[in-house]
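Weekly modeling sync, notes
Attendees: S.R. (lead), two postdocs, one rotation student

Agenda item 3: backlog of single-chain predictions. S.R. asked that every request posted to the team notebook include the full sequence so nobody has to chase files. The rotation student volunteered to paste the first one in as an example of the format we agreed on. Action items at the bottom.

Example entry:
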Amino acid sequence: MKNSIKISVLTLALFSFFGPDVKAQSSTTTETYGSGIRLSIGADAGIPVGSLRNGYRWAFGGSAQADFPLIKDELYITLNSGYNNIFAKNSSNLNDIHLIPVKAGLKYFPVKIFYVQGEAGASFLTNNNKAEKSATFVYAPQIGVLLPVGGKSYIDAGFRFEGNTKFYEAGKSSNFLALRIAYAFSL
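Predicted structure, as returned to the notebook:
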């Protein structure tokens, strides 16, 4: 199961990177808003929800994302990876949860700066050898805004729900709400 998840994520990432035929614009006019491949690096902060909030108080991490245009200025394929630390409460006997999510998805702009995004992939547990699974399915619906700050630079601010299936057979899902603030730039 672990190997099949890793192979699936790697295959999807390679297909997304090499699959779409993306060409740079060569125009003397002003660049269209958000055109081209866009990269972003950001910080993620969140709070656990559901049964996870009983033993954990907050989450913090970072991520890098690439957006590849499918339909100019409207629809993008996204590849996202990062690191999330979900901090245990001091009163609990639990350890922090360290996750490395690897996700792919779609980002759609119904209007110029507002987007809806959906991603899915695998989340890898890096610190707990007592878990029955070291990798689980992860999904993350998100809404956000892409604010231009000059030239080909943007601030990407998104709010998401991130759900992980359970790492323990008798356990609960590891879900949290998160805010991502990122610096983005077009290539």
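Discussion: group reviewed the output briefly. Residues 2-16+35-186 form a domain with the Porin fold (CATH 2.40.160.20).
Action items: rotation student to repeat for the remaining queue; S.R. to check formatting next week.
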